[in-house]
Amino acid sequence: MIDRSTVWPYDERGEPRDFVYQRYGHPTGTAAERALGELEGGETLLFGSGTTAATACALALGGPGSTVALAEGAYFGTGVMLRELERWGLRVVEFDQTRPPPPAEVVWVESPANPTLTSPAWEALRAHGARVVCDATLSTPVYLRALDRGADVVLHSATKYLTGHHDALIGALVTRDRALLERLRELRTRLGLGVAPDAAFALQQGLETLEVRMRRHTETATELARRLEAHPRVVRVRYPGFAGVISFDVEGDPLPIETATTLIRNQTSLGGVVSSIESRHRWEGDRIPRGLLRLSVGLEDVDALWADLEAALGS
Length: 315
Ligand code: PLP
Known about the structure:
By secondary structure, the chain is of the alpha/beta class. It has two domains: about 20-210, Type I PLP-dependent aspartate aminotransferase-like (Major domain) (Aspartate Aminotransferase, domain 2), CATH 3.40.640; about 210-315, Aspartate Aminotransferase, domain 1. The chain is built from eleven helices and twelve strands. Helix 3 links the parallel strand 2 and strand 3. It is globular and about 75 Å long. The site of pyridoxal-5'-phosphate has 15 residues, from helix 2 and helix 3.
């Protein structure tokens, strides 16, 4: 259950017990960390958001004069955050993650990338020698155990599939590297980057249904991707074959389409039980095709979703 305490009493000798002060860690968070760690095959630390986790990771692995090679077409907020750190001496270069990375101390990939849905070239990553961070938000451990593939750290915006209900902002880092884990823990405590107990509890509950949700997202999205491919107004469909995110391009302005859906909500984010759609150009500018719509397929009935999309596409 949720323990919202911010402090716990010392023992009878005046010594700290397992939990002392919530910023250092709390029982609800520790239970959720254990559950996610088991799924990923590593040790987990939770953070106040995916972006907070990413920031801690950049601070732990990067530094003045070091270079982070970031997958282009990956979640744009990660690039924005890393560029904030350029003022403190970090260098950021973007690269095509389907090809070998350039020289860098840290290589930051996303599997698959949001919203371009490319996947990293794992063999080239393993051969590179840099520390590898893999954002596996869109795959979840149901479809990817990135530590087994060679990543040093797995990053999740657990705000998405891992919680699954658009009701908790939460991030996670998973690693098998003990020294790195302790450095990340230290940064979390010192900079106050931890997660609230309520959000950690939402993660515990989300993990209990993760596998069934992901299988259903995949089943429905596979069918919708197939139908979108055949639709005359759709010029390109990107779908990796698993999970629920599809990015498809239409000719012209996508706004009349995204605002015409009724079952599918016109809102940002992804990974929830409720489907959502939005054009990404308005947020990301010309790095994204103007007509690209990102559809996050929820758990609704496939034919009802298709009827909604078909009506919005206008045929
Ligand atoms: N990584 C990916 C792939 C994302 O899609 C997002 C958010 O959209 C983030 C990281 C950042 O997570 P949060 O919004 O929880 O800070």
